[in-house]
Write a structure and sequence with these properties.
Distance between the termini of chain A: 10 Å
Mean pLDDT of chain A: 87
Strand order of the largest sheet of chain A: 1-2-9-4-7
Shape of chain A: globular
Oligomer: homodimer
Number of helices of chain A: 9
Number of strands of chain A: 12
Low-confidence stretches of chain A: 246-270
Amino acid sequence: MAIRHSELHAASSLTEPVVTRLKLNAPLSERDIGLVRGLGQTAETHWTGGEILSEGQVVRRPLYIVSGWACLRRDLPDGRRQIFGFVLPGDSVGVGVARRSIALTSTVALTTVKTIDATTVHEAAGLPEHRGLASALQAAAVLESALLLDHIVRLGRLTAVARVAHLLLELRHRLACVGLASAHRMPLPMTQETLAECVGLSSVHLNRSLQQLRRENLIELKSGSVNLLQPDVLAAISDFEPTVLPKSVISPMETAPMRRREDRSFMPPS
Amino acid sequence: MAIRHSELHAASSLTEPVVTRLKLNAPLSERDIGLVRGLGQTAETHWTGGEILSEGQVVRRPLYIVSGWACLRRDLPDGRRQIFGFVLPGDSVGVGVARRSIALTSTVALTTVKTIDATTVHEAAGLPEHRGLASALQAAAVLESALLLDHIVRLGRLTAVARVAHLLLELRHRLACVGLASAHRMPLPMTQETLAECVGLSSVHLNRSLQQLRRENLIELKSGSVNLLQPDVLAAISDFEPTVLPKSVISPMETAPMRRREDRSFMPPS
DNA sequence: CGGGGGTTTGACGAACGTCAATCGGGGTGG
DNA sequence: CCACCCCGATTGACGTTCGTCAAACCCCCG
C-alpha cells in the first residue's frame, strides 16, 4: 500500500509545499523551517485509489501531503459516497479532525501521492522554542474547519452550477497558495463522478453543469486540468470569497506545474 | 445583549450539563469537576435572537452553554442563511472552530440561553494535574467536527425526509447525553423556517417533509417539542448512527425537562 | 483493430422551490 | 372576557431543478 523511499536526494525540495503553507499560516523561525525540511527523509508513496487513512482506523501519526491529490470520503451503506473535500500538497492528514484518535473519514489518493511524517513537527510545536510552529498548526486546523463550513454552504444553499464554480475557485485558491496554480489554469486530476460525489450531485447532472459553464465561456476543460476563463464571474454566481488569512496570495506567475506522466494512470501498477 | 447574573444561589446546578458532557468525553478527577462547578458564578443570559458570537468577530473567551439552544449560522449576501448545527446545553461556543481567532460563524440564541465562561477550564487543561480535562476538551473538539461531517452527508446525500429524520435523531442523541431528552420526547424550540435553514430546504418543503413523517406515524409534533414514535424506523430511512463514543447513552428515563414559560417568547423583553 | 473506462446525450419522472392564499393559536388591547 | 392581530404553520398550483436509465460516443491504450 505505502512504499518507503530509500532515495535521499532532493528530499528537501519535496517539503517545500509544506513549508510554504506553514509560512502563510504564521511567521516561522529558521529552526522551524529546518525542522520541516528535515522530514524529506520520511517520504512515502501511495498509489492512485489507495487509502492513505481509513475511516474508523486509529490514527498512528500525522502526515503531510507533499505531492498529488487525495480526498476525504465516507461510504454509505447503499454504496453511495460523500466526499468532504480534497487534500492538496501542503495539507495534513490525520490531524485536527482525528488527531490521536479514530479517523472520521477515509483519505483516498486520487493520484500518486507522496507523504511525509509530520510527527516531529507536531511534537516540536509543544516546545517553547517552536511557538511559530504551534500557531501555524493552529491556523491550519482553523482553515480546515473553514473548508468544511464552506462545503456545507455549497451543499445547502447553492445550485448545481454554483456549487461547481464555488469548488473550482476554492481549489484554485488553495493550489495558488502553494504555487501549484496560476491565476487561470490548474490541475483537476479526478473523474467527473468523483467531482459529483463531492458536490452532492449525480454524475450526469454534474456533467451538464460543467457544460453550462463551458457554454458560457467561464471554464475550459482539458483532460486533467481546468482553465478558469472568468474567475470574477464564477465568484459572482457562486458567492465565493477566499477563506480569510493573507489576502490575495494568488500571484500573477504563469508557471503551472502539471502532473507528470506517471500520475495519469488511475490504477496502481501493482 | 448579555446580562451578568448577580445571583449566586444554585450556581453549581447550572453547570451540571457541562460536567455531564465532559465526563462522557473522558474520566475526570474530583479537581477537574470542582473546577467546572466553580464556573457557575460567571453565568450570563442571552435573549432569543441575540448573537452570542458574531461571524468575523474576534473570539474573546470560550463559553459553555448551560441552558437553552443556539445555532451556528452564516448569512449569505442575498439574505439566505445556512445553519451549520445547533448548540445545546453542555456544548461550547468559540472553541475548536475559532479558538483565539476569528469566529467562522455566528452563534445565535434560539431561546433564552445561559452561558458560563470556560476560560478557566481551557487554561487548566494545559496543566499536568488536569490531564483529564485536556482529553475531554480534545474529545469535544473531535465530536464537533464529526457533527459537521454528518451534516455534510445529510446535505449531500439524503432526501428531504431523510435529512429531517437524521437531524432529529442526532439532536435526540445529543440531548440524551446531557439528560435533556427521553427515549422518545425532546424539545425542539425553533421555527420550521430555522429547521429548513439547517437542512438546506425551503420552509414549505420542510413542512411537507414533517407532515410525511407524521402521516407515517414516525413523529408527533407539538409546539416546541417532538415525539419520535419509531426511532428505529427513522434511523433506517436516514442511515443514522450515533457519533462514536460511549454507546447507548440514552437512558430509559422518562423525565423530559421541558422549556420553562419564559423561554417560549421568541423576542427579548427589552 | 478491439476494448474499456470515462464522457456526453436524450427522454422521462421524481424531488424540490416559489408564489400566494388560508388557517390557527396564542398574545394583546379594549 | 372578547375581538383583533400577528406570526408561524399549512395548503394548492405550478414551474424548475435534479436524478435515473440507457444508449451513444470518444479517447487512450493494449
